[in-house]
Each structure stands twice: as structure tokens, then as C-alpha cells.
Amino acid sequence: MGTITCFVVDDEKEACLRLQDIINKFRELNFIGYEQDADKAILTIIHKKPDLVFLDVEMSGKSGFEVLEAVRSHNLFPTFIFVTAYSQYAINAIRERAFDYLLKPVDIREFKKAIERYKERNQISLNFDHTSLTEREKQVARLMYLGMTSKAIAEQLYISANTVNTHRKSILKKLGFRNTGELLASLSAIREFKI
Q: What is the pTM of this model?
């Protein structure tokens, strides 16, 4: 895996600088900036396309959940890690499919564990670059691998469940699998892949 680009969104400058300091301690991470304003953060994420976004939940203007939704509405799916002082948001973070959740003040050991989980997840992926799958089919396949239902995939990609099912059938046919179980079993057996 190459360098992992990281972006921080938090309306408190001290929190941004703290995370910047932690990120800079990891050789494989590349800190590409932070933003305190939620609307500006959305535009920057869309422009810079970071791999990882560390996102505060409670901010002035928009919440972290609204930032996440706005970015995804542009068909961009960076990995979001929520960072907040309020543990009651953990359930909502999981529901919104954030990859991980860190409590403030961020403990460097917990941060390191989150990065290790991220790297492990990205090593268990499939390289579709040399297949005939469309970009949308690759998105659907990645979400299938994460265990999402057609309804959940439809909501995340802002398409209908029927369209998702059509993509699923096309993916299976193009990759030569009889059913989703066969596809997922094959993906789980592969160690190096990138969707």
C-alpha cells in the first residue's frame, strides 16, 4: 500500500493541530490539510480526494454526518473516521457507515489501531482494474464485499434497489460467479486487492 492521504475536519483549530501532529508521526500517512468550516471542508474533500477523513461530529454550521452525506452525494467514498468528545454518537457513526470512531482527546494508541484496521481492510480487496466492470459496478462490488444489502447500497449510491440488483447480476456474469456467495468467498480468499 502506498502513502495514505489524510484530511481533518473540525471547527476547533487546536483539535485539528493535535490530529495533524499525530498523523505526522506515521510514515505511511500524508497529512494534506484541515478545514474548520464544514462547507469549505466538503469542497476541499471533493477536490483533493483524500483516502482518510477524520471528521468531528458536532460543528457549527453542519454536523459531521451532514458533511459525510454531502461528500457521498458526489459519488466520493473516502474512509471516514469520526472524532468527537461525545460517545453517544457512536451508534449513529456506525449507522452512517463510518469506518471507525475515536474519542477526544485522541489517544495515539487508539489512533494507531484504527490505522492498522484501515490497512488490513485495504489489503483484503480485489483489483478490478483489468476487468470489464464499469466504475459503478466496482462501487457496488465494493459495497457488496462490505456486506451491505441492495437496499443499503441503493441508499448510499443514491440509486434504486432494482438498479443495484441489475448491477449485481452483471457483476456476477462478468466475473463468472453463479451467486453472491461464490463472489464473496472468492474476495475473502484474496489478500492483495484494491477496488
A: 0.67
